Amino acid sequence: MTQPTHIRRDHMTHRPLLLDTALQLAELGLPVLPLREGKGPMGNCRACRKNACGGRPNMKTPGPCACPAPCHAWAAATTDPQLLTSATWAAAWRQAAAVAYHPGGAGLTVVDLDNADAIRWARQILPATRTVSSTRGEHWIYLGTMTSPNAVRPGVDIKSTMSYARWLGPGSGTMAQLPDAVRALAVKEPTAARPTPSPVTVPTLALGGQCPHRSPVYLERGIAMAEQRIEEAPDGIHRTVYRMFLAVLSAHGRCGCLTDAHIKRLFTAAQGKGESLRHCEDAWANAAAALGM
User: Fold this and answer.
1) How far apart are CA 221 and CA 223, in angstroms?
2) What is the pTM of this model?
3) Confidence of residue 208 (pLDDT cuts 50, 70, 90)
4) Are 165 and 110 in contact (CB under 8 A)?
5) Residue 213 has pLDDT above 60, yes or no
């Protein structure tokens, strides 16, 4: 029986074929990383779990983390063949279901069009560029970088800096320069004072009683569970982040348990999956509004 492509091995090198693809892309200057089933990045190693190492804020200044493992999602992407073929990465390639790349690290922006309506919109509004077919739509690839907001319009995400895109092949067409029409998608009109991720303040408890949730174990378990659900979400990360924020706020938002440190942990977990700070703030504000806070 023929083995699935993602686990078939080259008999000459005993390497997964996905690794061969990754090495070819790295040679072309695309920083690459392995993806597990569900299109998610490999989980952080024990030392980097929950960003205990301090994380990697961006590719050029990796910060205090010097972990050689494929940790921190897009920030692990590399063009170094020695790192890609190292023993530390071997387990990741054995588990990998696909190869991803960091568009911003290669000076690129991917406009991810998720459905036929989004493709129709792009053909009417955006200049033609290199196009790659995806599972549900198309990736339009431009020369140039920008921030990576998601859901800029129905069925449209942007993947550039601090993000990753699945490698779906070279595509067809000539790459055009990143147009202002795409950059404009990341600009939101200013809104009235938006709630920021700060501790929720509530009236003093009646009769001076102590908050029943202040048990460190109870609170820690709730935060840790939310972090884990976000970090392990295989897809639908926007919905997962919102649901976890909603769950934490519903359990602890009205009793004053949450601190800046707790909220920062949740935001860090979400940003580790590619969410922007702005999206985290919006999701937090929307969850608070849904609960009437």
Assistant:
1) 6
2) 0.61
3) very low
4) yes
5) no
Separation CA 186–CA 34 (nearest Å): 27
- Torsion-angle region of 38 (φ positive above 0: left; ψ -120 to 50: alpha; else: beta): left
Q: What is the pLDDT of residue 272?
A: 84
What the block records as the tokens of 217 is 């174990």
> How many Å apart are CA 175 and CA 153, to the nearest integer?
23
Bridge partners of 15, per DSSP, are: 10
Task: Retrieve residue 272's tokens.
Answer: 């580790």
Residue 170 half-sphere exposure, CB side, CA atoms within 13 Å?
A: 7
Report phi then psi at 285, rounded to 5: -65, -40
Q: Sheet harboring 165-166: ordered strands across?
A: 32-35, 98-101, 165-166
Q: Which residue has the higher pLDDT, 20 or 56?
A: 20
Q: Which helix (H) or strand (E) holds 34?
A: strand 32-35
With H, G, I as helix, E, B as strand and everything else as coil, classify residue 259. Answer: coil
Q: Which tens digit of pLDDT belongs to each residue from 67-121?
A: 888 988 888 899 999 999 999 898 899 989 999 999 998 999 999 999 999 999 9
Identify the residue with better confidence: 174 or 252: 174
Q: Which residues pair with 130 in a beta bridge?
A: 141
Name the CA radius of gyration of the chain, rounded: 21
| Tokens describing residue 104 | 């911003």
In the DSSP assignment, the letter for residue 95 is H
